[in-house]
Amino acid sequence: MVYESLPRTVRILLLGDPGVGKTSLILSLVTEEFTEHVPPKAEEITIPADVTPEQVPTNIVDICVAEQSLEQVAEEIEKAHVICIVFSVEKQETLSKIATYWLPFVRDNCPDDIRKPVILVGNKIDLIDYSVIDNIWDIAEEYPEVDRCIECSAKTLTNVSEMFYNAQKAVLHPISPIYSIEEQELTEKCKKALSRIFKICDLDGDGLLDDYEVTVFQRKCFDTPLQLQVLDEVKSVIAQNIAGGIENDCITIKGFIFLHCLFIQRGRNETTWTVLRKFGYDESLELTHSYLYANVKVPVGCTSELSYKGQQFLTQLFEKYDRDKDGMLNPTELKNVFSCCPRIPWHNLRYTVPTNDKGYLTLQGWMCRWTLMTLLDLQNTSAYLAYLGFNFLENESQKSAIHITREKKVDIAKKQSSRNVYQCHVIGPRSCGKTSICRSFLGIAHKKIKPHAHERGDGNTSDNCCINTVLVYGQEKYLVLKEIPITRVSDPLQPHEVNCDVACLVYDVAASRSFEYIARIYIKYFAESHIPVLIVGTRGEALPARQEYILQPEVFCGKYQLLPPQTFHVRENKHDVFVKLATMAAFPKHRHLKHFASLTGDNSSWWKAGIGVAAATVMGFMLIKIFSFQRR
């Protein structure tokens, strides 16, 4: 069934046989008194928002079948948001026609697959001394669009205002998406939505809502505190009506769902809808697009990272679901984290981020994976933050969890980068050891290295990527290694394969034709660019072969003012290669050998270079201050 989106105004249409009191009900509402002489049809009435309980403008439309054609009535049905079918409780034939004529007529004239809510109204109860509600509900069971039934009297004003208020509620807080009248319980979609809400509000992840958690939920959903006495009464009602609803004086998920079922059964479906909408649900119980996807633009030359608030939220989430407190998320715990999401967003974690020997996510690996998704697929990060409750718990949109970096050209001009995440493209001919370098970055032993994710058809945006942290002059940075797949050496590189923060050109020192490929790649794509380049020779333990190229690697690097080739052996797992890559990305202006001439030795040289750059920056700042003071 499809439901219409929430309207800004409510249009109520009154249908029914002649003489049942449709016009009298409208006039009694407006004048607050009964009029003996009424016209055949009331003019359309608009009730301002400030005099309605729901603060929504309301139009009330009357129908006179003697004056209007069926086509005109059908047009009004299509325009209406809710339809009140009125009958006279003293005339059985008007009640019978609801099922035999009016409800089928309404269905036939609604747009495809849209069920407009219907209120069945028994008027003139002042003329009888019994109730016909039971007879009405028999009809309602056949037609799920019947929201509720109400008895009233236009003459005595009994339930007149309540009738129109309930018509408003049927539009603004529809019962059909959340409650099955036939089964007398919540719909499956409603249960699923409330289960997600429960898990988000369960701040400590123990499967229960204690008094503090219920109080937080109440304050954020309804902006009012919950008195302790009222909370005790609520828990008492749950305990008396459903087994397992209360545990250790806390509300279980079973009790939470029962409570909302009770609200609806008592006609307070607006309470449940207030909660659902607070957590992003629309009238079809789907999370809205605006709730899932924050309006964040990433300008050309900028990148997206997690802000401090985003990192803090994700760290707390990790700790919440790490039930055994071993500092890792095992498969069950990871599944529980994303139990309120459509699916787990990641695969092949073992070959993408740091894990333990069993492939379980550590906190470092957890933060690395979110960092990678934020960099490569910001929309997905935004959606999953929403699924996991960031909007509710932080009381603001996911935009506050995202940081957009400044343009890269500014970094180049300032000779250093303020980013925390850098992309390194690993480029080289087939079988030169690119995958070994990437896997070594994650600390995976050589014998455990398996084919790359793209060879197994993972299909994720992060295919061919791995990410880990690196210390750059004492600051933790994220370095993403993206392996560029090469099918044929004659294939040109695409712009997205070239554009990165630092390039790692890889060749096999033992293969005589290996270096030629990366030399040509460098000359064609990187020689005139601002992208720093580090050349790495794999199989460092092997006897180097003379390269069949006009320049040997050392001579080539000297000619183009690059650092000398760095040898890499997977069994030794030389971490300084990754430190150098990250440092070169952090200081993009220092891309040539003349800037990094002293950085070919141990890591202390890199540290000294960092001190030098920092000192130069401080000295420049002090000179500016001195000159500014002298001008004064």
From TrEMBL:
Residues 7-173, 419-587 form the Miro domain. InterPro entries: EF-hand-dom_pair, EF_Hand_1_Ca_BS, EF_hand_assoc_1, EF_hand_assoc_2, EF_hand_dom, Miro, Miro-EF-hand_domain, MIRO_dom. Keywords: Calcium, GTP-binding, Hydrolase, Membrane, Metal-binding, Mitochondrion, Mitochondrion outer membrane, Nucleotide-binding, Repeat, Transmembrane, Transmembrane helix. It is a single-pass type IV membrane protein. Residues 309-344 form the EF-hand domain. Signal peptide: none annotated. One of its GO terms (cellular component) is mitochondrial outer membrane. It is found in: Mitochondrion outer membrane. The keyword Transport does not apply. The chain crosses the membrane at residues 606-627. GO terms for molecular function: GTP binding; hydrolase activity; metal ion binding. The keyword Metal-binding applies. Its EC number is 3.6.5.-. Belongs to the mitochondrial Rho GTPase family. Mitochondrial GTPase involved in mitochondrial trafficking. Probably involved in control of anterograde transport of mitochondria and their subcellular distribution. This is Mitochondrial Rho GTPase. It comes from Loxostege sticticalis (Beet webworm moth).
